[in-house]
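Handout, tutorial session.
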Amino acid sequence: MVMNYPQQLPWMKINDFLLYIESLSDSKNFSMQVIQKLHTLIPYDRFSVFYVDSNGKLNDATIMGADEGWIERYFDYYSKLEQGNYSLLEKLNDGSSSKIKVKSRDWTESKPNEFITDFIRPQGIKHSVGMMLHDVNDYSCIVFTLERTKLSKYHASDIDTLSIVQPHIENLYRKVLENGPKISKKDKYAKLRDVLTKREVEIAGLLCDGMTPRMISGKLYLSLSTTYKHIANIHTKLDVSNRQELILKLIEMKDGIYQQS
């Protein structure tokens, strides 16, 4: 179905954005480069990027302009309110065959409830828009949220613009994953064995299972800061620059990880 978009959309900016993302050739910092460039199309006051695995479990989150504690409280409690009505994935993907990949919310017009009163308003969030990317297997892999605390609400033109660029970003993301470096299972196993300590291998395996750093801390009876230090060491040893790339690499290495734990 051909979509008829209004002529007043920022077509030159959209074109510049698409040319820019086409220059991205690897998974390192992919999401950060995309969301930073998105600001030229759709200004925001703060953002969050969430990485989920094939089971829909949160692997990691990158945020700008918000306290990490709010994110932890969201996933531990608020996302489960009202039968998951405010779940990040539920808001963008209703489970139907036609997946919603872009959605906006005007929180100033929302009826007050526990989520609005205790989570949204204390952070000063007035408007938000979300975008979801799926990998080649159509799993939910990355969710972007752009939030406004001072700027005016998102208009229909903003949503149309995001809807136009979303499939291009998604296709590029899939291409980036498919064209990543191919390493044999034997080499992957040897690399983990050579560079990671026993504890790091254990933590890597738990990350592959979709556990968050806080969950890992509780399971292994480690302080959260110690867990983060181990994860940072894994980053360095496996030559990755963020946990998005780390998770992708560890999922490929999963067999080797579990043989070592």
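The second record follows below. Compare its token runs with those of the first.
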Amino acid sequence: MQGTGQMIETLWATSVLGEHPDSPLDEVRTALTGEPWLLTTQAITSTSGERWADGVHDEHELIFSDSGVLTVEADGRLWVTPMGLGIWIPAGMTHHVTAEPGTLFYVTYFARDRVSVPWSGTTGIGLTTLLRELLLTNKSAMLDDAVRLRIQQLIVDLLAPVRSASLDVHLPTDPVLRAVAEEILRNPADSGTSADWGSRLGVSGRTINRRFERETGSSLTQWRITVRMRRALISIAAGRSVVSVARDLGYTNASTFIQLFRQTTGHTPAAYFRSFGAAGLEGDAGTR
């Protein structure tokens, strides 16, 4: 794990962790959710920026954020979690989690021997207002055991993959292409073409584009557009206007940005969040 500033809140049914000095996200662990419970939730606040590498867990996980920027890498793909979107990681899946300073996020662990879902692999889950409130009620309220079990079963029943594109990006494995991808992830507004990158790396732009498409399924240009739209989701969910977000990402015309967003996701920014019932998204994002 990189970084030293974090606060871990021990929540309902996680007393086995105690006041653990380090986040358990790094470790291979035995199950945290004891019988007869289906799930348990922990809250983590990153105060100075954190990276948890090579996490592998005996239980399924649902990771979602309340504020800040959270990135999850799993199954060869990179995900971001704007408010309203959770990332489901199946038990046994190696993953990396990065949280920027000030990020508050939750990790809900599901007992894999008592919880089954009709999908496999890492996927985006829509955090509707109802689902989010049930998760937080389960972790904080004093409840009769029978009531808590019914709430937990309802939570499981409400889990559903998002129907809209969740803007995950496939990462290249070639070290040279991975360096290009990581630079774009650091600075999505960079407008370098495949020819520019080829010149830097001593190969033709056509070679860069052909290899990038072979490894990721997208041209370098389309991959960068997807990265930009992912970054835009985080900013819009945080309450920033579409105009300012578009400008930060290198678009002088907001209508061009909205058109590309629609081409990438099938929706305008406001309709995208509505399409999976995102919780807590009002104001600017809802008017564009």
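Points raised in discussion: The longest strand covers residues 39-46.
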